[in-house]
Design goal:
5 helices, 114 residues
Length: 114
């Protein structure tokens, strides 16, 4: 899990660095992807693997997941949970910007330096 974590973090950081030959849509998509990966990593860190076990049925698994998620994320409030909420908002905004980029935005790539 540590190797996966480091690899995802390095991919997110590499995508965050803007390249000169990229257009506006590519820069926005890279920032969105980077933010999404970092949000997933914080979620992985905050949830850990303590809930992993074998369940007899699917609904029992979901019931246990909801109980563990409530205890891990909502009460008592954890620092990584506080960090995860704004990260999810930032990722949503970057996703809307990335998927909303039009062809006209590509022509005006000098005004949007990320």
């Amino acid at each position: 899990l540590q190797g996966l974590f480091h690899w995802l973090a390095s991919v997110a950081l590499e995508l965050m660095i803007p390249k000169k030959e990229e257009g506006v849509s590519a820069k926005r998509m890279n920032m969105f992807t980077s933010s999404a990966l970092l949000t997933i990593l914080v979620g992985m860190l905050s949830f850990l693997n303590r809930h992993m076990t074998f369940y007899k049925n699917y609904f029992g698994m979901w019931k246990r997941y909801i109980v563990v998620a409530f205890k891990m994320f909502l009460w008592p409030l954890q620092p990584l949970t506080v960090l995860l909420v704004p990260m999810m908002g930032i990722t949503a905004v970057l996703g809307i910007q990335a998927f909303g980029t039009t062809a006209e935005d590509e022509d005006d790539d000098d005004d949007d330096d990320m």
